[in-house]
Each structure stands twice: as structure tokens, then as C-alpha cells.
Amino acid sequence: MELKIKGNKLLTGEIKISGAKNSALALIPIALLSDGVVTIDNVPEVNDIFVLKEILEYLGAKVSFDNNVMVIDNKKLVNKEIPENLSKKMRASYYFMPVLLSKFKKVEMFFPGGCAIGARPIDQTLKALRALGGVVDEKDNHYCIQTEGLVGGHVYLDMPSVGATVNTIIAAVKAKGLTILENAAKEPEIVNIATFLNAMGAKIKGAGTSEIRIQGVEKLKGCYTEVIPDRIEAGTYVIAGALVGENLKISNIIPEHIEALLLKMNEMGIKYNMDDDSIVISKPDYKLKPVNIKTLGYPGFATDLQQPVTPLLTMCTGISKLEETIYENRFNNVPFLNQMGSNIEIDGRTIKVKGPTKFKGQVVEATDLRAGASLLLAALSADGETTIKNVEHILRGYDKLVEKLSAVGADIELK
Ligand code: EPU
Questions:
Q1: Which of 37, 216, 254, 258 could be cross-linked to 175 through a Cys-Cys bond (beta carbons 3.0 to 4.6 Å apart)?
Q2: pLDDT tens by residue, 267-279
């Protein structure tokens, strides 16, 4: 599939942000831990979620998904190996590792897939599962993990990995005794996950800080929970507002979750109006100052907004620098942005963006989810028509993308 975008149309009206993909991708497998029926509201309708639903049904769960509400009944769950063609579709498939291990004392799985943005090893998850009593047998890209019963343990993560933090919490929740997790990720999605589990009866303290304590419990009851707003989708549309907005309102957001982006926009000199859950933003008719950005774990500047913010840096007068510290290979958008008219140099893990430059429509390709979002933002502000190929990557993470952008005046078509 491809997107055709006729650029330079001012966007006006309101874009309502959906539930966070990366939160929902964890909440849904975690629902299998419950001893009752779980209802998850505000689930985005993105491709990754449909793959996850397929995996749940493959494992024997009963799942309904209407109007962004997913109801999961896992009474008839069976322990089967998830076929590789499903698990390699996304990174989040490895949340099934601790879920099935906790539930059935054994799990067999292939190495998880996901966007090709770096090596993305899973050593920290394996270390945590071992610390809690898992025995890991690893051959090529296949894992068989067994346990005689998970027990609490002391886990120190070498880096504050989101996935390893989630996996440790999952493994610890029904383990015997206390687990102490240090150097944990502090992302808002972790807080969403802990709140969800605590609503089921888990005993998790400290989520959102770097030390999380989990006291194992025997049972988890059914519950209702809501997915938090997607901070990366929010940031992407706020950037769209700064590129081509005319009083564009981005609503249903938690401004604090995108504070690092907003502070950088302040440094550039971009003005916007903000209230408790929305931001109104317009394309500036004044000169923007260059800025330096370094990606970091939350509350630092999100790596997932690094590629989307790059088109905005091309609007600044002077040289901006952007350093990617989380992934080794997250600049696949840059050659295409340059083809569209920007002046960006890649130097190891840093890019130097010399502006201001103007984008022109071209035929380009989305190589991964956020690279695709970056090209989409460039296309919205470009002169002429842009075709983005391999748009499946973008649709993995942006709910109702074409509908949302068309409704505020973008000329965008999905073919
Ligand atoms: N890492 C290791 N070993 C591990 C785990 C991670 O070396 O065992 C490294 C990774 O290779 C990477 C860094 O640590 O360089 C960060 O990885 P992390 O585990 O934090 O990321 P993740 O859980 O795999 C989630 C999101 C990503 C997002 C990152 C960072 C999901 C499904 N994915 O990935 O989202 O970039 O956190 O915030 O939640 C996206 O949405 O575009 C996306 C890639």
C-alpha cells in the first residue's frame, strides 16, 4: 500500500489522540494472567493490535474488539508455541514469554520481531526470567523456558529497557515472594501496566520510578482498565501543527507526557496554547532557532519522536544537532528527507540538520514505523505531491491516520 499526499495544505480543526499502542500491546497479553474476564478500553485500532488479537485467539482466548473496547476471556487458554510468522511481526510478542511461563511453567517462542532500527537484543528479559527461577534453553532464534515455579528475586537492568521492565513485572506478579527491580524504565506505559495489574489485585509499588517492588500474589481477578493516550501519536500531530497547522487542536493528550518535545519547541521559539488535555498550534510565521536534542528514556526526549521531529528541525535557521542514544540504526528516514530537499548529514549516531530548507514532493519509502511518520510530516509540508511506499509500517502505529488527517484538511489518499 502507498500514501499519496498533496502537501502545503493548512490543517485546521481537531485531532483526537487514540490510546497508546505501546501500552495496549502490553496490557493485552497481560490480560491472560487474570483469573477472570478483563475489559480494556481505549484500545487503538492499529495493525499490531489485530496481530495480537490473532495470537490470543490462537492460544484459545475468547476476544471481542468493538468501538476500541477489548474484552478478553482466557478460561480456555492452552499453552502452544506461537507460530513464528506471528511472533516476528512485532517486538511485543515477547510479552507472551513471562505470561505463559507464569501461567503454564513452560513457554516456547521464537525471537520477537519489530521495526528494524537496531539489534534489539532480549538479554535483559532473559536475565530477569532466570533471576526469578526460569531455566532458559536457547537455540538459534528459538527459546524454551521452563520453571518449577517462579520465585521473587533481585533484578538490576543494565539499561532501563521498557520491554525488560514489563517482562520482569509480569513474571514477578504471581511469583512467590518479593521481587525488587532496579534501573527500571520510567515510561508512562509502565505506570499504565502497573495500575492495570494492581486493579486485578497485584501488589506493585514504585512504577514510574527506577525501583519497582512487586510482592507476588496467588490470584488476579477480572477488571476494567483504560489505555492512556498515545504520547507518540500526540507528539507527531503536535509537530504536524507546527509544520502546517492553523489553530490545529490536538486533544485527549497528557501534556506532561510530551514535555520534552514541548520544551524543545519552546527553545525553537514555537508558540502554542495548552490546557489540561489539549494543545492548539499554528505554523509559525517567524524565524525558528536551531536546537540540540538527545534521545533518552522517559522523561527524556523520546526516541520514537526523534524521526518525527527531524522535519521540524529543517525549518530552523542554522544547524540543529540530534543524537540518537537508544538505537544504533534509526536514521533510515534521512536519505529520503534529503531527497525531498533537506540538508542533513549523518555522523555516527548524530545528525546535523542545516536549515531552513523547503520540502518538495517525491516518491519515498517508509522503512519503519517512525521513519514513515517522519516522511509523512515532511510530505504534509512539501510543495507538490509525495508518494510514500510501504505504508503498512506507519499503519502499525497510527490509528485512523488517513481519516484523522483528512478531517483537518490534509489531501491524503491510501491506495
Ligand atoms: N536492549 C538491550 N537488551 C534488552 C532490552 C533492550 O540491549 O534486553 C536495548 C535495545 O536494543 C535498545 C534499548 O535497549 O537499544 C531500548 O530498548 P527497550 O527495551 O527500552 O525498547 P523496547 O521495549 O524493545 C519499546 C517500544 C519502542 C520504543 C522503546 C523505547 C514497544 C512495543 N516498543 O521497545 O517503540 O522505541 O520502547 O522507548 O513498546 C515504536 O513504537 O516505534 C517503538 C519502536
A1: 216
A2: 999 999 999 999 9
